[in-house]
Specification:
Distance between the termini: 25 Å
Number of domains: 1
Helix content: over 70%
Largest sheet: none
Number of strands: 0
Structural class: mainly alpha
Order of helices and strands: HH
Radius of gyration: 19 Å
Number of helices: 2
């Protein structure tokens, strides 16, 4: 079977898209952490349901998707 390699511009574009996706997710996580931290410092309570977050993390970890390949 003959191997078909993508053009270099496609490889570059894919690398850039993956990089920007990572930057976006990192920025979102940092903002979410900051808001939660401020919430706890202001009135000493965490506004987000921890049980729902743990449940969502378990669901992703136990799925058969791209996260587990």
């Amino acid at each position: 079977m003959e191997s078909i390699e993508p053009s270099q511009w496609i490889v570059d574009l894919t690398d850039r898209a993956a990089y920007l996706r990572g930057r976006y997710l990192t920025s979102f996580s940092q903002c979410e952490f900051l808001l939660a931290d401020l919430s706890v410092k202001i009135d000493n309570r965490f506004r987000y349901s921890l049980e729902k977050r743990v449940g969502a993390a378990k669901t992703m970890a136990e799925s058969n998707g791209a996260l587990n390949q």
